[in-house]
Amino acid sequence: MENQFYIECLDCGLQSKFEITSQTCPRCKSAWREARYDYDNISKSLIQRLHERPFDLWRYRELLPIQDPNQELIMGEGGTPLIRAANLGKMLGLPNILIKDERQGPTSSFKDRQAAVAIQALKEAGVTEIVLASTGNVAISFSAYSARAVIKLWAFLTSLVPASKMREVALYGSQVVKVTGSYDQTKQIAGEFARQRHLYYDNGSRSIPSIESMKTLAFEICEQLTLQQGPPPSFPWRAPDWYFQSVSGGLGPLGVIKGFEELKQMGWIENVPKIGVIQVEGCSPMVHAWKQNKDIAQPVLLPQTLIATLATGDPGRTYTLLRKKMLRNAGGVFESVTDEEAFRAMHYLAKMEGLSVEPASAVAFAGLVKLVRSGHVQSNESIVINCTGHTMPIERNILGDGWSKNVVSPHALEENTEEGLLAALSQVSIDRFPRILIADDNAEVRQLLRRILHTQGKYTLFEAINGEEAIQMAHNERPDLILLDLMMPGKDGFAVLDTLQKSPETANIPVVVITAKELTPAEKSRLQGHIQSLMQKGDFLTDELLDEVRALLG
After folding, report:
1. Mean pLDDT in runs of 10 for the chain (554 residues)?
2. Using CA atoms, how far apart are residues 204 and 138, in angstroms rounded to an integer?
3. How far apart are CA 528 and CA 395, in angstroms?
4. pTM summary value
5. What does the domain layout of the chain look like in residue ranges?
6. What is the assigned CATH class of domain 417-537?
């Protein structure tokens, strides 16, 4: 039996038929629309069918924008366990903390829900080639499901995404396009690439299948909470008092709230939970807008976080819709935590609950701790936390060379950095290294390093354009840290290191070598024990990559 649903424009109210390749309202061209279903009939019929169905995402297929799920594309998505966090609960004085363990999806991320529904809809519509932009997990999920559906995927990833995630995307056969730029710039390039080639582009929060897929989290949570009371399940179902999730662009909680709203509309739950939306402090535009009581979030142009998967600087209208839904229902709060708080949460989750989670997941747990301490969450309340994913690196040696294409955002040198470099320099403490010497003969590299450091704190910076100047400044200025290029005219970086090591005044200055040179084993051995770390420069300054951008977008 075909699903009976329609799409309603959030701006002009037009009701129209769902066509996945038509991504805007036929009347006003708005990209913001929602699916509506025959809730009265579904509420009566679906509850009678659930006992016959496996506990997975497709258990609720009447409430999804798919006419006939293709069984060959299903990989066990959804149906993830709801685990009681007894030890964490004891630490926080909260006996009712439950973890929705999305690490147990096909690619170890809650994004498997999004990819599963989207690829089903695309396959149903006969689409054979698609484009998306990602900070990691969504590209991995879409790659797996695209491979199964024989759909070609162009995955545009910001260069700050960990290389292990990029390799996994490539392993599935997707075309990886690494963009030296922010995630927001990556989305712009990917969108333009899709537009010029007339390809389907996944719009995240503006994608009907993506929003609808996240509802299934709400459905499962309420059914699982009810079943925990013991069979037969009581009716109406139980909803938690709180639902927590870390966010980047906000797609997840936007879809989850819609799921809770639909359950309430059908009479399956009595109340929509409060929502805890947690961002990382170095990129938290939603939190800033919420605390200033604003309907629109001001974009963050320069995210300052090591947790790249949460570095969406511009949430756009998603924040506005989230805020409206939260205020309309039980409420909730937007809060942020630091990188350090998230990393600390990773440690105590592993040690107390036996859960190894990625940093983005840990952000939600750190947010819970913060809100408990501030009094927002009460000891008698029930809390469900979305454990969004588990990072599982792919072996680097099985792909060979040429598995990705590289492009540079036109503004990359103004706002962004080469993969790994920002992460390394973000660990530089202003208290330990307030005075830094940059030694590089390339003016553009020196400019880039200055901008990176200025985003991290108020450092006193010195610049040397060759080896002789570097040695002289090291003696005269006594910097706390040296960023040293190996390939400079006159005395190269190796000679500079040798000279600095011979002088008691400079021998103990920490050195980070930043080089484009492919080092031989002998050269690496020569550096060992004399530098703090070694960073490889990328190709972000070459004309070839600018040509690559033009070729890809032409």
Report:
1. 84 96 95 96 92 95 95 97 91 91 96 98 97 93 97 92 87 92 89 93 95 98 90 81 96 97 96 97 97 96 90 94 93 95 89 90 95 92 95 53 64 42 44 79 76 65 93 92 86 91 90 74 76 52 33 32
2. 10
3. 25
4. 0.73
5. 417-537
6. alpha beta
